Amino acid sequence: xxxxxxxLAPMEDVTDPAFRLLCKRFGADRVYTEFVNADALVREVDxxxxxxxxxxxxxxxxxxxxxxxxxxxxxxxxxxxxxxPDFIDINFGCPVKKIAGKGAGAGLLRNVPxxxxxxxxxxxxxxxxxxxxxxxxxxxxxxxxxPHEWWRQTGSQPFILDLAxxxxxxxxxxxxxxxxxxxxxxxxxxxxxxxxAVKNNPRMHIPVTGNGDITTPERAKExxxxxxxxxxxxxxxxxxxxWIFQDMRDCLDNGRDTADQHPLRWCIDLLKEHVDASIxxxxxxxxxxxxxxxxxANSPALKGLSGFxxxxxxxxxxxxRDEVFRIMDRIADQxx
Length: 336
What we know:
- By secondary structure, the protein is of the alpha/beta class.
- It has two domains: 6-254, TIM Barrel (Alpha-Beta Barrel); 264-335.
- The chain is 46% helix and 12% strand.
- It has an eight-stranded parallel beta barrel with strand order 1-2-3-4-5-6-7-8, surrounded by seven helices.
- β1, α1 and β2 (30-37) form a beta-alpha-beta unit.
């Protein structure tokens, strides 16, 4: 049976050890840390050094770094290598202004020579496998929305095909593509045809992972079957739903649809477990609740409940563990 790898995407303020371990339990084949700022890491900022921590149970785990200069990225990669993750991932895809606007993350899509210089500096410096996560380009001008036959006839091809080949030539071991441009941020639909074009480019010899709009087990299966990617990375669909990996695995391996078969009490207990894990990780009750609050707000387990609006507001305003758990228990009793 063919194995279809499922990865937890790196997400700031989301993929801390507490959440990574939950996703790992439910079948994530690889997890990624939050973004690690190369400059802050080299300066040994405590909050940044903290992001390098991971448990052995998380393996295989990738630590993702971002920055805008080859030297600091090289030095950061060497520091990351000392804690022995399984992969070092370079972030060339983050679209937010405070990162991309300063020439890091997806901002490097506007400076490909520097992007390649950073990639070579990192791959030359470390022995660990180096992977890259990026987007299809800076904006729509980087895309050529035409059939593959047209590309062959004209000698032209989309920006991302050239870029993927160039990154491969720098010595990376894998590439992950988010099917949007930086200008799109997270709007519109991810362009999986472009991801498939990179995967099926005969000059690409490294694994290609697809990312973007994978929100259901059926969509995950469709993208594996239709585009032939080597793995799929799931991001926002994991919010409040670490069990999505189990649902996808059931669909991919056994053809079973288990996505709507989880009892509400079971889901609530997992959300409570995540709250406790976040509090323990951060070391502060209120901050731990705030940190895990986005998972309450986005959990599919709590969506579509009739007459739930006021209870949802109360849940999102609660700032003590006892109050959060009391409301969650009431939800399970009333709607379960």
